[in-house]
Amino acid sequence: MLKKNEGIDIVKELGGIQNVEQAQALFEKRLDSDHLIRIRKLSQPEILIKIANAIAMCDPARVYINTGSAADRQFIRQLALNKGEEAVLPMDGHTIHYDLKEEQGRIIDRTFYIANPDEKISSLANKILRDDALVEVRTKMAGIMSGGTMVVGLYMRGPVGAAATNPALELTSSAYVSHSAEILYRNAFDDFEKEVERLGHFYTNIHSEGLNRAEDLPNARVFMDRSHRTTYSFNCTYAGNTLLLKKGNHRFSVDKAVYEGEGRELAEHMFITGIDGPDGRVTWVAGAAPSGCGKTTTAMAGNHFVGDDLAQMWIDESGSVRSINPECGIFGIVEDVNGEGDPMLMDRLRNPGSEVIWTNVLIDETGTPHWTGNGEAQPIRGRNFQGPWKKGLQDANGKEIPISHPNARCTISSSALANYSEAAEAAEGVETRVITYSGRDSDTMPPVWVAKNSDHGVAIGACIVSAATATEVGASGVKRAPWANAPFIPGALGDYMKAQFDFFGSAAIADGKRPIMAGLNYFLTHEARGGSGKKLLGEKKDVKAWLAWLEQRAHGDVDAIETPIGFIPRYADMQTLFETRIDKAYPEDLYNRQFSLYVDNILARIDLQIAAYSKEENIPPRLFDVLKEQRDGLVALKEKFGPIVTPKQLSDM
């Protein structure tokens, strides 16, 4: 069990501020009159002590208390420009930020959980003992903001008043990080203390880019103190390593759900989107996928957009599963975002009217951003993530340098999107009736299938396998990606899995309101289904049809074909949905290739999971029961029909 406030609070130890009186004395000394007036509007002791200790430890020349006003937002944006962290682009409201070319993703090898002795940490993560972390932070963060400006922001990770929202402090010397926070999160200066009192906690994030030099990257670190819910990040600039309001605090939210949620709360790596059904019905879907695996595209395929990356979920008093988005913006990968597959996002990226921070794309001689897969004519020269670029430029290994980094991003407010839903700011969240899990799976699972029950649904999430993406520095190959949340699960996987079984199987979920749980996979290739080449067997826009079928299935509007892994669609239903939802023919031959079970591949996947989870401690036996049931059913199918089983063979059984 994770213990809160266990061990020394590192920033308090290094800052030396123990009480409110000492904090106020430091503010009198270090803040100018304007910002002293601002901070005096706060009175909650732990908030003031935390801010004061961060100031004392990092020693900035100036402290800017950001209240979220238009003037404050403009100051932060201008500070980013003055420091060279961003540069203005010709389109009004657009800027470009470049990370160090050696830091274009999460530095997973330098990311650690601060652990107390005997504390269980996920087997998929790195840990550092608290005493060692104290030495590291003292050595590398003390005085790191000397001569610079610390921006202090008070944010809500979710709508004010929501049951599963989380308050968080962001203290950083990077104006780019602060600018990003203003787009991605709700500045809640006026509501922050009230929400902290209601919820009984807050998160703290302390970051400095230091001198922002490549030679400092070996000394970059991301530390997450679970006991004191505080993150430390230094000598790095990529938002995934620095804006720890995002994945750093998501980790704390996972801990909170697993160890304090009592089976009624989850923190997931999921989009939230609404699908239109008949007679004005809107069905809300939450879906997990590893970063870089199409989560934003899937979220945008819905009719009512709430979020593309994170979800806080709970079971309310009426027995409904509710979801909120901790964020209010998109930090989205732009590779392969184009007019055909992502028309609404492209409209906002290519037309004026929205504030956008671009990162690590190519900027041509006219100041226009370009990226791989945008479906447009590509320039032959410009500047990109590694410096000046021209077509055909090669790296030191003779490999051609792409026009943009695979992890190039855009940061934009959710409310700018044409399909944005006002429900995103509803404190009661949205009633969630469909849960999906997906990854970059080129050769095994069908495009969509629904679990037989909640235990089978948890197993779908536990068994995601995905090709590595550019979101993690140095990652390659194909790997397990449990729930697409594994990099952000601080504790033991067995604890997290138990929380999943408890939540989705909870008796607190009312009859008729239990979500269906499903797998999604639109990365099947031709060569994996009897053809040739690595081109996708379908298109990105096909996900609209898969989601529409899940919407109908959630309400019992369509039948399905039962298989050992779950329920798959009937051809006639999918043919109709392709025609009505995306105006596209759907040949039966394509359906058969996509939905035939390639039994040996699925068996190998199941065996992989059984072997991997057998090495973990305290995995709930229910997982192995589900996998054995599926394995036995698949073996029986193979004995009867051979290694490839068609939908017709399944439906005729």
TrEMBL record:
InterPro entries: PEP_carboxykinase_C (IPR013035), PEP_carboxykinase_GTP (IPR008209), PEP_carboxykinase_GTP_C (IPR035077), PEP_carboxykinase_GTP_N (IPR035078), PEP_carboxykinase_N (IPR008210). Keywords: Decarboxylase, GTP-binding, Kinase, Lyase, Manganese, Metal-binding, Nucleotide-binding, Pyruvate, Transferase. Signal peptide: none annotated. GO terms for molecular function: GTP binding; kinase activity; manganese ion binding; phosphoenolpyruvate carboxykinase (GTP) activity. Residues 51-257 form the Phosphoenolpyruvate carboxykinase GTP-utilising N-terminal domain. One of its GO terms (cellular component) is cytosol. Residues 266-631 form the Phosphoenolpyruvate carboxykinase C-terminal P-loop domain. Pfam families: PEPCK_GTP, PEPCK_N. Its cofactor is Mn(2+). GO terms for biological process: cellular response to glucose stimulus; gluconeogenesis; glycerol biosynthetic process from pyruvate; oxaloacetate metabolic process; propionate catabolic process; response to lipid; response to starvation. PANTHER family: PHOSPHOENOLPYRUVATE CARBOXYKINASE (PTHR11561), PHOSPHOENOLPYRUVATE CARBOXYKINASE [GTP]-RELATED (PTHR11561:SF0). This is phosphoenolpyruvate carboxykinase (GTP). It comes from Desulfosarcina ovata subsp. sediminis.
